[in-house]
Amino acid sequence: MKLGDLLKEKMEEFSKEDGNYLPKNSGKFISDMETDDYISSVLKVTSKRMQTTRDGKGFLLLTFEDRSGTMRGVDWWNAELNDERLTQGTVVRVEGKVKLFDTKMQLNIKNSKDAITVLSADEFDPKKFIEITSKDVKAIYEELLKMIDLVRDKYIKMLLEAVFVQDEKFVVRFLDSPAATSVHHAYKGGLIEHTLDVVKLAKSIRDNYPDMDINDDLIIAGALLHDIGKTKEYSLVPSGIERTGSGEMLGHIIMGIQMVDRYAEQIQDFPRALLMEINHIILSHHGEIEWGAPIQPKTIEAMIVHSADNADSKIAQFREITKKTLDDNNTYVQNQWSEYNRYLDRKIKVKGVDASYD
Hints:
- By secondary structure, the chain is α+β, with helices and mostly antiparallel strands.
- The protein has 2 domains: 30-124, CATH 2.40.50.140; 137-317, Orthogonal Bundle (Hypothetical protein af1432), CATH 1.10.3210.
- Helices cover 42% and strands 18% of the residues.
- The protein contains 12 helices and 10 strands.
- The strands form 3 sheets. It has a 5-stranded mixed β-barrel. A two-stranded antiparallel sheet has the order 7-8. A two-stranded antiparallel ribbon has the order 9-10.
- Strand 7 and strand 8 (240-243) form a beta hairpin.
- Helix 7 packs across helix 12 (300-329) and helix 11 runs parallel beside helix 12 (300-329).
């Protein structure tokens, strides 16, 4: 199958996806659940822990998840039974009542051995757990190819074409891949969306310094390639996004370097110094050692790509927190603040301008 046919098939797949579609018989999304709702819903177990009350009664504390969010659950009745048969990542149909506990929604599981039913992969719809980008992936990919056309250095252009045009299997994975399991762009198509935004931001930063000696081709290459290792770090499974074994062991930065090295080896006489510059951008794009960068940016091109990557990831988080907060409230609230976000280490002001801050 030719790349054009693969892309056509992939675009048809994306076009069939409806981000607001509620899978049949899957029950409510967590974000739609309200206090005193009695629910029967398909959810994923992301954590479990046996606990004991002061009088010695055991109970099972759970965290449930779907693509809309997470919710705590408590099983007072069959704690030991469910502790034995549930593991992290198990998809279940769970019945119970939603209550407010300690200012947060909590699912109190029904007093029945059948209140939690373990489901196999063919017994639930993956759409309950995998969100899809709302953007036109075909248009994003075509714009990405236009960025490659801007490159003047013949070696860099050959490298980018080898990755994003000639390697059909990679392109298909790249179109599908999320950019994370959470935090930002954690949905199908999130990686290509994030990548193009980083390229555009990096170019705009560069354009603000016309008097500086900056290699435009390196910026485009670094921005396009900085996260390609994520095509191997994450996988889409019926129950959502998971980190692969190689992703756990190496991470996307190291795997990205390995991938770029292999593509460069296929190009005759690819300059070693040029490969070093590109690899440095990939290695340093997280910016700081404490943020997961093996090395800090030491070239202007690496600093620009890091700045663009950091800005896009932060802005995407603001966008997604804003959407979730407004969805949870279902109303326009003047001077609305989100819940504390541990990744941003802050609350954010979601919407509205209040003239009074007394």
